[in-house]
């Protein structure tokens, strides 16, 4: 079933896009991630222009994170104060990202930067996640309790001036730390079309030392608002959000997410994390290899 | 009064010889199968039929065969063309040129290969053939580099279906009726197109005629594209609302089960 995308200016097979959204949704339901890090590269592989892919993927992540955010809010699993600081940082970050986007586009380096960022981020996150899941699996097999995590924030964070109390997270730290973290993730959301949960969650745990019961909820809260902001900024600057493309992705992903969430309850979380790490590393590898082999198109028009 | 008569007389004197000359040369009556191509949800490209008649004065066919060249040309726009090169192992955009008047679409069909019909100079004057498009590069660059980039662009657009060349696209029936099919791909840029027909005999262009074709987005697609361009804020807001509705709706439906 061919469908014309009015902003991307090309026609795609609607079924393929819905299935793609469904697959990503399945993963996001299983692992509690937005899945933008998969949507954007897959859309680019399919032939959608990178800008349109990143912008529309961000819109899709909004839909993927709304129900999760509401669920965590109901269960009091969100540190609203921390979330607000993160969102504020994210808003600044998305504006910085918009500026960077324009600059890199003018230089003609946006595609390369997007690819390199993906390889570095996904590569390192995938490696960390995989190693950890592997270690806890081995401990489980040996019948030992999983190695306990030490909960402390990074010394760099402790050295920042100004301190606020974040009761739900159990922290007394400078708000500049989450502000900067939010900013960094906001830039990535704008450039890569990712929610940034795969960076946010480890950063919250290892850099800020937040209590685990509010980490996922607060991360979802931040992702929801920052992807909304990103959609708005993209609409008003690059004009690259394709609402038809986003709609197709959403149709697949919201259904996939529900199925995935059900499936996740019946599988051990260690296996899930190992699987996710594998997928993340595969995407990173594919993008990394693409950087080094001769591209199909030497010439591009802008 | 006298003045008006003088004017009429003068007009007649100047126009008559011209009319006579026109009468001696053949005339083209061109048309296209579709004056306005609408891009809508299921648009996967279209085939445009360029056809028409050659009217010879006195309805007498000349002894030697005349040829027809049809050109469908899209709106020109300024572009930046970038070239990837290997830098420190990875492929990055390393070099670029600006072209002020690059057509977003150009298709040429003829009854015989262009180089058999006219000499290079004539082909260049009438911009017949992909190599003869004048794209107005700006800034100083070496002729070699320019040629390399132009070849790159032609190759790229050819594979996208945006440039098209077929030396046997035109079929001429009994020397007076011609027709040619030009494929228009889905990624065709919108705008005002010109369908031009050239009648060529003995290396000379003896008649030219053209028709306008409009390619536009229509209906919902037009509405969306315009909204994205002109009302970024409202467009973004609707995209956000759409995704919120989808996300919330799905979880509400699944929870009820």
TrEMBL record, chain A:
It comes from the Bacteria. GO terms for cellular component: plasma membrane. It holds the Pfam family TauE. The keyword Nuclease does not apply. Keywords: Cell membrane, Membrane, Transmembrane, Transmembrane helix. The keyword Membrane applies. The chain crosses the membrane at residues 12-33, 53-73, 85-107, 113-134, 171-199, 205-228, 240-259, 271-293. It is found in: Cell membrane; Membrane. InterPro entries: TM_pro_TauE-like (IPR002781), TSUP/Inactive_protease-like (IPR051598). Belongs to the 4-toluene sulfonate uptake permease (TSUP) (TC 2.A.102) family. Its main location: membrane. This is Probable membrane transporter protein. It is a multi-pass membrane protein.
From TrEMBL, chain B:
Pfam families: Alph_Pro_TM. The chain crosses the membrane at residues 232-254. Residues 1-23 form the signal peptide. Keywords: Membrane, Signal, Transmembrane, Transmembrane helix. This is Transmembrane protein (Alph_Pro_TM). It comes from Sphingopyxis flava.
């Amino acid at each position: 079933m061919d469908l014309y995308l009015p902003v991307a200016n090309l026609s795609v097979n609607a079924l393929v896009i819905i299935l793609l959204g469904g697959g990503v949704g399945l993963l996001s339901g299983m692992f509690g991630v937005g899945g933008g890090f998969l949507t954007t590269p897959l859309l680019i592989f399919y032939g959608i222009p990178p800008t349109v892919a990143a912008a529309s993927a961000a819109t899709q992540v909004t839909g993927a994170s709304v129900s999760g955010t509401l669920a965590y809010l109901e269960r009091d699993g969100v540190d609203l104060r921390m979330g607000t600081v993160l969102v504020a940082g994210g808003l600044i970050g998305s504006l910085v990202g918009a500026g960077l986007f324009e600059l890199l586009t003018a230089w003609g380096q946006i595609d390369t930067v997007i690819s390199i960022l993906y390889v570095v981020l996904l590569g390192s996150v995938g490696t960390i996640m995989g190693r950890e899941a592997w270690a806890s699996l081995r401990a489980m097999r040996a019948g030992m309790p999983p190695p306990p995590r030490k909960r402390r924030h990074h010394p760099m964070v402790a050295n920042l001036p100004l301190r606020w109390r974040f009761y739900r997270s159990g922290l007394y730290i400078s708000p500049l730390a989450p502000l900067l973290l939010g900013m960094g993730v906001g830039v990535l959301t704008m450039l890569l079309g990712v929610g940034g949960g795969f960076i946010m969650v480890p950063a919250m745990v290892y850099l800020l030392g937040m209590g685990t019961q509010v980490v996922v909820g607060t991360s979802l809260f931040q992702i929801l608002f920052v992807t909304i902001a990103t959609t708005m900024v993209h609409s008003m600057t690059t004009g690259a959000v394709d609402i038809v493309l986003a709609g197709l992705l959403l149709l697949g992903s919201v259904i996939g997410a529900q199925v995935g969430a059900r499936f996740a309850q019946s599988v051990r979380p260690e296996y899930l994390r190992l699987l996710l790490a594998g997928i993340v590393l595969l995407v990173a590898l594919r993008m990394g290899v693409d950087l080094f082999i001769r591209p199909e198109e030497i010439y591009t028009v802008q | 009064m006298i003045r008006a008569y003088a004017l009429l007389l003068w007009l007649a004197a100047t126009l008559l010889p011209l009319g006579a000359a026109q009468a001696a040369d053949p005339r083209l009556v061109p048309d296209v199968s579709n004056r306005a191509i609408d891009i809508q949800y299921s648009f996967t490209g279209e085939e445009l039929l360029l056809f028409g008649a050659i009217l010879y004065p006195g309805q007498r066919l000349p002894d030697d065969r005349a040829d027809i060249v049809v050109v469908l040309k899209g709106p020109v726009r300024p572009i930046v063309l970038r070239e990837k090169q290997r830098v420190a192992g990875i492929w990055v955009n390393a070099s670029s040129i600006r072209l002020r008047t690059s057509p977003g679409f150009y298709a040429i069909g003829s009854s015989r290969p262009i180089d058999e019909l006219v000499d290079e100079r004539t082909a260049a004057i009438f911009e017949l053939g992909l190599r003869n498009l004048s794209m107005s590069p700006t800034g100083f660059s070496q002729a070699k580099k320019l040629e390399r980039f132009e070849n790159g662009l032609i190759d790229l657009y050819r594979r996208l279906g945006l440039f098209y060349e077929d030396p046997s696209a035109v079929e001429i029936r009994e020397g007076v009726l011609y027709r040619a099919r030009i494929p228009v791909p889905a990624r065709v840029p919108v705008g005002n197109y010109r369908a031009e027909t050239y009648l060529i005999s003995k290396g000379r262009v003896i008649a030219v005629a053209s028709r306008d074709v409009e390619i536009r987005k229509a209906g919902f697609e037009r509405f969306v594209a315009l909204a994205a361009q002109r009302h970024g804020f409202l467009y973004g807001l609707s995209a956000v609302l759409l995704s919120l509705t989808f996300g919330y709706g799905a979880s509400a439906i699944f929870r009820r089960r």
